Amino acid sequence: MKRLVFATNNAHKLSEVRAMVGDTFEILSLEDLDCHDDIPETADTLSGNALMKAEYIAEKYHVNCFADDTGLVVDALGGAPGVHTARYAFPDRHDPVANTKKLLAELQGQPDRRAAFITAIALIIDGQKHLFEGRVDGFIATEERGTEGFGYDPVFIPEDTGKTFAELGVDAKNKISHRARAIAKLCTFLKGKPAAC
CA 179, CA 176: separation in Å to the nearest integer? Predict the structure, then answer.
């Protein structure tokens, strides 16, 4: 089985990706490398941040790896939080609860709730760099709904569902999410044939 390092210590992301990939590849985490570094994410694009993380791990550990960066793009906020999605409430730390509260406060009374979740994945394999992107359009709910998932899942309603990611549940989310779409492209590339994982 081929091994790939996913440059993350986010247990939620790791379990999502492992579920999507199945037994096609063994996905290792930064924990498996005993890496607890605070990897820089200072690019001004999602793909730039993903590539920065992948390059850091590839150069330090000499492994094939991939990294992702995900952004929530809200039309009424001019594309914010965008690259600052994970640190929207506080620039020095991740606080998903505070992030969601800030987003709802910023959109209070706003009729335009259109938004999109975008995931960029940077793969470095055999010294070659590749980029993949997944996107799902939708809307921001006026209040949190549902109990599954993480991050902004209780407030993001993907198009044509009428439910937040947190209401749909992990299995349903993994079939349609931005990360699922980006991972499908990654898997198609890795397997060298036009089929998703």
Answer: 8
